[in-house]
Structures are given as C-alpha cells and as structure tokens.
Amino acid sequence: MTNLDPMPSVEDLKAQAKRLRTQLAVLNTPVSHSQSLELLAQQMGMRDWNTLQARASALSNHRPPWAVGDFVRGRYLDQPCAGRILSLSAIAGGRYRMTLHLDEAVDVVTFDSFSSFRQRINATVDSHGVSVGKRSDGVAHLVLQP
To answer: Domain of life here (predicted)?
Structure first.
C-alpha cells in the first residue's frame, strides 16, 4: 500500500452520502439516508454500505500521524533535530518511508577530528516515529517526538 489516504474516513463518507441525498432531493428524486449510503458504496465499487464502512475503518487505522509538509522535532543519531517532511509513503508492516529536510544540518560523525553534516534524512519509521535502523549500540537512528 503506497497511497496514504486511499479512501475517506467513515465520517467523511457519511457526509458525502448526506450531500448526495440533498442533491437528489433537489432533483426531485428523494432517497432515505440508508439508500444514499448504499448508493455511495456502489459508486465506490463496494457491495454495500457495511462493506465500505468496514474497509474505511480498517484503512483509517493505518494512516500515519504525519503528512508531507508537517514540521517535526526529534533526535537523529542522538542529536536534537527539527525539520519538514518532504516525502512520506506507507510500506509493509505498518511502517513508513520518509524524507526529512532539517532546519540545521546534523553532524553524523562522532570523531573530534572529522565532521560530516547532513541536512536531508531518509528513514523508515514505525507509526510512533521510531526508525527501524539502529546504531551499533541499539539506539534508533531517528526518533520523532509525538
């Protein structure tokens, strides 16, 4: 699943059904609320409203807590960092691939006599913002604040 928002939430679907019902009434084709829910489900390629509602509910549990353009704070290589999300895509296992552009570059080298600064970070994180990649001491590369 690479699309982060494949269908609207259940609340949005109900609002769409209400708008459909209102428009049909204006066209002298009144339908009940349950009929408008069923029509909406069929329009979206589902067998019935219950199927559409179940699918929308299941998918809403997999939406990330961030969006492209969001400002985030956290720690990268155990150093404070802050920046914007440039890209975000869902991958298998409830994880997300993201690219961050940091406001200030972070030194990714721990030696005193050498430095290498990085301002753009690519990471795979779980739904809590903790990266899958870890340092040799077990600390996650990236940890975003909630």
So the answer is: Bacteria
* pLDDT for res 6: 55
Closest CA to 116 of 105, 124, 100: 105
In a domain, 1, yes or no: no
Taking the whole predicted model, whether its pTM rises above 0.70 is answered as: no
**Could you tell me if 44 and 7 are in contact, meaning their C-beta atoms sit under 8 angstroms apart?**
yes
In whole angstroms, give the CA distance from residue 107 to residue 117: 4
3-state SS, residue 78: coil
- Matching residue, tokens 């960092």: 81
Give the residue numbers spanning the domain of 96.
70-145
Domains contained in the chain, number: 2
Inter-residue contact 129 to 145 (CB < 8 Å): yes
